[in-house]
Amino acid sequence: MRLLAVRDVSKVFANGVKALEDASLEIEAGEFLSVLGPSGCGKSTLLRLIAGLETPSAGSIEWQQGRPDLGFVFQEPTLMPWTTALGNVALPLKLAGMARSEREARAAEALGHVGLAGFERSYPRELSGGMKMRVSIARALVTAPKLLLMDEPFAALDEITRRRLNTDLLELWQRTRFTAVFVTHSVFESVFLSQRIAVMSPRPGRVLSEIAIPAAYPRAESFGTSAEYAALCRTTSARLAEAMAAA
Q1: pLDDT at residue 246 greater than cutoff 80
Q2: Which of 3, 165, 168, 238 has its CA 20 to 30 A from that of 191?
Q3: Based on the domain organization, do 58 and 83 belong to the same domain?
């Protein structure tokens, strides 16, 4: 079932920068979709438009049954340094007025789902970059959103941590089947994670092609060294090159 459709959306900022031009994309409920494109092509702007953090200059975003509850994971973890991992994850529930005992139980459960059981009382300064991002993901998921928007969340991490988090993210998605829209400029990451990839042109961005990734789930780390993965990466790289050339 379709969750939403982006219809011929353009976005021009006050400084005159045109981030998107006639961008169109449909997103299915429960799917894992990656939006792939070069830096500055409007991927993050598209995500913010879907989240309702920006409004289109032209075109429309059409929800099949109204905008669902959603979570947003930004490029940086944006954690509050003065409170613990538990306090950071519980914040959305606190703002919603949930009782302390219930919100802390929900936050502890969310931290467990991202592999951070035992770190509830740790402060951000005591956590590695990958652990901070796990806290950020737990905070986005603690409200059980139907849609999770992720804006290059692993871009600043080392390759080993990034691969581990990719695998863990897929396990979370398979367990709960939220709809995931994942922005990245990495061909390798998009192929590993996704059921479908939307390839964007350089700014002003628009979706030039879509690629189905038929590989079965679960995708263990061994998938990343398989011949199937290599072939899909070559196809995706070629589509990205075509998008760059079309600009």
Answers
A1: no
A2: 3
A3: no
